[in-house]
Amino acid sequence: MLKYVPPFLLLIIYSCGEKEQHVNESKNPPNIVLIFTDDQGYRDVGVFGADDIATPNLDQMALEGIKLTSYYSAQAVCSASRAGILTGCYPNRIGIHNALMPNSEIGLHESETTMAEMLKNNGYKTGIFGKWHLGDHPDFMPTKHGFDEYFGIPYSNDMWPLHPQQGPAFNFGPLLLYENETVIDTLTDQTNLTTQITERSVDFINRNKDTPFFLYVPHPQPHVPLFVSNKFKGKSNRGLYGDVIMEIDWSVGQILDALKVNELEGNTIVIFTSDNGPWLSYGNHAGSAEPFREGKGTAWEGGQREPFIMKYPNKLKAGRTIDVPVMAIDILPALAAVTNSKLPEKTIDGKNVWSILTGESDVSPQERPISFITG
């Protein structure tokens, strides 16, 4: 028999339940997914102006999240830009100036704290599936920098002897495919590499759905030479380059779907951006930085201004466009703040821009007041 419960007692019970739910949510920091393409131009996404490439998943992600129109990579070239976003440091200051070659004697120094190390120290599972390019010596590989799992290539996908633009000086040998610290294959055909990276990423989500995780997906594409699977060959209105972008958009969709299936969508931060602007030396195999000037390797806007989309349903109001300048080095301290992770002990150059992303502020913390010298 049901007994009568006074309304005030129901209110107390309900309030306690609400408090308990809030406490439980606070104990579950958000998952982080960072999708990072290679040499993609500002105008190579529908919501950033592309009218000849279909990117429905990225466009929908922008509608459900936020779009940054003044986001800048840490530098206009591969290795340096990756060092910047993963450490929150100006890459030149920590010794990564350009694009590291195979068999390089240098790499990301062990004393630097990566985003993966920061989050792993806070209980996160960490995985990278794609291009590393911060040193291919065993001492510099991802598993030495906080990643539990690694599948991908150690440097750019053109650093192999079959690239048509390379002469004897660039004959680095076969392109190596790694799993953790072991070479598992040599790639002479990269047609299915984007699909493999996507499948590994989805599997990582499925296996780690019950624990906080950091998933880093640095796609080797659309860096030349371009490769696309048969699923998207000839599908775009911008030739092979557009086909490649469509497959990357598909990959984003697969990752977002995995989050939904595992009921992780609301409490997962998903970021999509690129390392630097398009490599314009390759004709129609390059992207578009319009309306900005130049591209990869230059200090013009086209070299460092990148598309940036971020989705986090639990905290970020959907459908907003933010024009406040944000830099790649600012992402690590912002994620540290929202995950309650400890910042690196060594000095970093990035600033916490979380209040900009949430809309609470429209002033960059990188800005300093002008001081006048008198006398």
Q: Please estimate the helix content.
A: 25-40%
Separation, N- and C-terminal Cα atoms: 88 Å
* Structural class by helix and strand composition: alpha/beta
SSE order, as H and E?
Answer: HEHEHHEEEEHEHEHEEEHH
If you average the pLDDT, what whole number results?
90
In total, how many beta strands? 11
- Give the low-pLDDT segments: 1-5, 7-26
Q: Give the radius of gyration.
A: 22 Å
Strand content: 15-25%
Shape: globular
CATH topology category name: Alkaline Phosphatase, subunit A
The CATH superfamily name is Alkaline Phosphatase, subunit A
- In total, the number of domains comes to 1
Largest β-sheet summary: 11 strands, mixed
In short, what is this structure?
This protein is an alpha/beta fold and 375 residues long. The chain is built from 9 helices and 11 strands. It has helices at 7-26, 56-64, 78-87, 115-120, 193-207, 239-261, 301-304, 331-339, 354-358, and strands at 31-37, 66-72, 125-131, 149-153, 175-179, 182-187, 213-218, 268-274, 305-311, 320-322, 326-327.
Note down, in words, how this protein is organized.
With 375 residues, the protein is an alpha/beta fold. It has a single domain (32-306, 335-358), classed as 3-Layer(aba) Sandwich (Alkaline Phosphatase, subunit A), CATH 3.40.720. The protein has nine helices and eleven strands. It has helices at residues 7-26, 56-64, 78-87, 115-120, 193-207, 239-261, 301-304, 331-339, 354-358; strands at 31-37, 66-72, 125-131, 149-153, 175-179, 182-187, 213-218, 268-274, 305-311, 320-322, 326-327. Strands 1, 2, 3, 4, 5, 6, 7, 8, 9, 10 and 11 form an eleven-stranded mixed sheet that branches. Strand 5 and strand 6 (182-187) form a beta hairpin. Helix 5 packs parallel to helix 6 (239-261). Mean pLDDT is 90; it is low at 1-5 and 7-26.
